[in-house]
């Protein structure tokens, strides 16, 4: 957009992002109730996201030829890719199903159950049972989660849900609010600098 004043002696130009966080595919529309979706993420087609889940910056969840289902309290972290498979050698229909309170990487036409951890490329027709750790490219079973790790995953899921609310509030701010807070921070920095200069003048040395 371009703003020009009446006498054309001043103008401001700013880029307008054409990125669509939520995008339909024909009659398939993403559904996210009470979830945080970062502005730079892409949720496309038949994607269902559970309550208190978070889809972080740069993620792509693509439900174009099949559906993607994300449970509650799940975090799909930065730059993760989740997509689906319509056909394969076994002739199966392959959606991608992600359970509750879990963590994702690159997932393709697979099922990841509750309270599990996948930090790798998970290929189509793969099922990761609850309580397992998978890694590698393609992902393979590594070991079972310890009880301590299971407790940490549940705690981490809650922490990410809370953090997502902070990010959602920040991303919801309008231009005027952002500029106001920027000016406020600048004013505070100048005040702190003035106080420091006065302190040095009064004491004649730098205490640090």
Automatic annotation (TrEMBL):
Protein origin, superkingdom: Eukaryota
Localization (cell): Mitochondrion membrane
Membrane topology: Peripheral membrane protein
GO cellular component term of the entry, any: mitochondrial membrane
Gene3D superfamilies: Hexapeptide repeat proteins
InterPro entries: LbH_gamma_CA-like, Transf_Hexapept/Carb_Anhydrase, Trimer_LpxA-like_sf
Family: Belongs to the gamma-class carbonic anhydrase family.
The protein, known as: Gamma carbonic anhydrase
Organism of provenance: Papaver somniferum (Opium poppy)
């Amino acid at each position: 957009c371009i703003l020009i004043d009446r006498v054309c002696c001043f103008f401001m130009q700013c880029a307008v992002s054409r990125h669509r966080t939520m995008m339909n595919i024909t009659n398939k529309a993403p559904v996210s109730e009470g979830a945080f979706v970062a502005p730079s993420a892409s949720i496309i087609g038949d994607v269902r996201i559970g309550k208190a889940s978070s889809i972080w910056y740069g993620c792509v969840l693509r439900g174009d030829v099949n559906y993607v289902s994300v449970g509650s309290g799940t975090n799909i972290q930065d730059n993760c890719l989740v997509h689906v498979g319509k056909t394969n050698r076994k002739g199966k229909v392959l959606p991608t199903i992600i359970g509750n309170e879990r963590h994702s990487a690159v997932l393709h036409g697979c099922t990841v159950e509750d309270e599990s951890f996948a930090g790798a490329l998970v290929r189509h027709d793969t099922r990761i049972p609850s309580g397992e750790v998978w890694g590698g490219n393609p992902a393979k079973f590594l070991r079972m989660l310890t009880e301590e790790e299971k407790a940490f995953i549940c705690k981490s899921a809650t922490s990410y849900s809370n953090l997502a609310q902070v990010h959602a509030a920040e991303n919801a701010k309008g231009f005027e609010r952002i500029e106001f807070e920027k000016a406020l921070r600048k004013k505070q920095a100048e005040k702190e600098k003035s106080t420091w200069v006065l302190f040095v003048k009064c004491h004649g040395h730098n205490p640090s």
